[in-house]
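Predict the 3D structure for this chain.
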Amino acid sequence: MNAAGGSNIGQRKDNEDRYEIGTVTTSNEKEVQFLVIADGMGGHEHGQLASRIAVEQFAKLDIDTVQDEFQLSNMRQLFQNANAKINALQEHLHDGIMGTTMTAAVIQGDQLYLGHVGDSRCYIYRDGELIQISVDHTYYAELVRQGQIISPSDEKQKNVLMKALGPEMHVEGQYLMQELRANDVLILCTDGLYNALHADDVCAVCAMVQTGACSPEEAVETLLHRALAQGARDNLTLIVYLHGKLEL
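Done. Predicted structure below.
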């Protein structure tokens, strides 16, 4: 199998992360694969519900949605549907918020379609380099993008989200298309994982996936194990995908 996912509760009482891997065959017999992860917020019960709804809404991707081929407009619609569903439930809450990050990749042939809201991430490992293609929607990341001087108090707010699915009636996500190359490795992960690991650790495992030294399933288990060994406290979730493996 060219994709695998896994999740671990870390040192939390509940796991508010969710992920899904699936495939859809279009009306003209093209295969479309999707990978999606979500990290819920708003308290244990609300966070779990929000991430579950987001992933379930995205997993409704089917032949009726895709038709002949997947379009970036389909990605936007799937995110809007998830946001509307969560926001409608939040309206009934007496206190607090309900929201979730969501990062989704759809692969059709050699074309990657990315949809993203929040601070979960999507990376491409290519030519020995780990490239983050998603943009963190956090207060801290926005300061960095604006070239602001980062204060100690700002450092403590690295995980303060500027965007999430659910809290607002409308949210504008990041949507892009990118060409994939044979042997590219995609990593989708929640902040619990990337905050616990150095990029070199992830690169080393991705290189092993490219050479066939380990499968995506083994890569997932290795990265989860290493993050836990580093003392990760948050929920940990990731998906590893190998594109168009070459004969080596």
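Strands lie at 3-8, 17-25, 31-41, 99-108, 111-117, 121-126, 129-132, 174-179, 185-189, 236-242.
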